[in-house]
Amino acid sequence: MNQTNPGLPAGLVPDDASPEWLNKGDNGWELTAAAMVGLQSVPGLVILYGSMVKKKWAVNSAFMALYAFASVLVCWVLWAYRMSFGSDMIAILGKPSQAMTEGYLLRQYESKYIPTADYVFYQFAFAAITVILLAGSLLGRMNFYAWMLFVPLWTTLSYTVGAYTIWGSGFLKNHIIDYAGGYVIHLSSGVAGFTAAYWVGPRHSHDRQHFPPNNIINMLGGAGFLWMGWTGFNGGSPVAANGITSLAVLNTHICTATSLLVWLSLDMVFYLKSSVIGAVQGMITGLVCITPGAGIVDTWAAVLMGILSGSIPWFTMMVLHKKSSFFQKVDDTLGVFHTHAVAGLLGGLLSGLFANPKLIKMFYVKNTPHGPGLIYGMLDGKLQHGLRQMGFQFVGALFITVWNAVVTSLICILIGRVIQLRMDEDDLEIGDDAVHGEEAYALWGDGERDPPPLRFRMTPKISSFCKQFGTDH
């Protein structure tokens, strides 16, 4: 027998790295889920953004995503994680503090069977993708140095508040149904992106009128990372490898496939063509819509959510956007407001409508104040409870919308006082080479590039000289 621990065979000692509370299955799954969410951003959105924009903006768009991923992680472990999930400071925000010590990261996370380090990294991947999704509204004209300031400021002042308010210990925690981030991630990124796009200003006029993707095949590759990575996005939220996890994963993919097919069908009916870009947009709206209710709605509800997520955002993007002077004033490059704000709001409200009280108790706790969904409230004779839940869903949406619109505006105004938000017109004409000194594709020679175009500013003397010879060039 082992004298140190009589329960172990001779020669073996307890594994200090695997304490009694640790469940290796849950731990392994949560690490996998966190990695899958990270892959949605790097390389997923890096590839998607770099391919979905005009060729001259491929490097800049991809690099905005890569920079944000790195920047958010540093902010997250230094102060932002504890502001989102730490001890209470005010009703909407936790106390800023680091999350890097061994004693903190290796202890049990709440009542779950994983180390806190798992959850820190998993939630970092959520925070990072939120900022990167926001960037989709700003591609093709934002000053990269302004973006470098915007990312840590927005993560600190905006994202942490939404996360703490709904998922942490904030005043909406025990009221809002937001399974994996329909409000915290998608509604906030859509509203903030649209708001920031207003302050940054539009793309170059020619880019706004003609902005074809430079590589549709690579765009589909990035979209594939996004779709498959969503398995970890919604599957990791229970922080365990259990039945809710399995249901959430199945619901996620069913809703997404349905949404894609509905969007594609609408494109074919009204535009007589099966748009690949449209199919990707329908895929994204399906993923976003199911997120706030993935593990707490039945599969039939996931199908209905897919039908609505493939049609309502399609209408707002393809019809309402083109007819509304309000939407036309703001240059939202990739339509993030429609694919994330509209779809996220839709998913949050539908979760309040379809949430199954049995699943809610399995995901939260048996005596949870959440739910039931309005439909189940009507069927179970608890209409008042269902109406109350729908009321909270509206309140949560209103809070996230107002907070992100106001704080994002203040951040843009502050940065604008320090550095120009939008690139110079000369740089906007050239793109990547002017901003980074690099281009996405070498299409001739042995990786050689054409010499940079000659650029100079028209001074009064040069202008006078040109006029003498009858030219302005």
Automatic annotation (TrEMBL):
Output the Gene Ontology cellular-component terms: plasma membrane
The record, for Pfam families, names: Ammonium_transp
Write down the superkingdom of origin.
Eukaryota
Q: Per the UniProt record, which residue ranges are transmembrane?
A: 31-50, 57-79, 119-139, 146-167, 179-201, 213-233, 239-264, 276-294, 300-321, 333-355, 392-415
Q: Which InterPro entries match?
A: Ammonium/urea_transptr, Ammonium_transpt, Ammonium_transpt_CS, NH4_transpt_AmtB-like_dom, RhesusRHD
Q: How does it sit in the membrane?
A: Multi-pass membrane protein
Quote the NCBIfam families the UniProt record gives. Answer: amt
Family to which the UniProt record says this protein belongs: Belongs to the ammonia transporter channel (TC 1.A.11.2) family.
What protein is this chain from?
Ammonium transporter
Natural source organism? Handroanthus impetiginosus
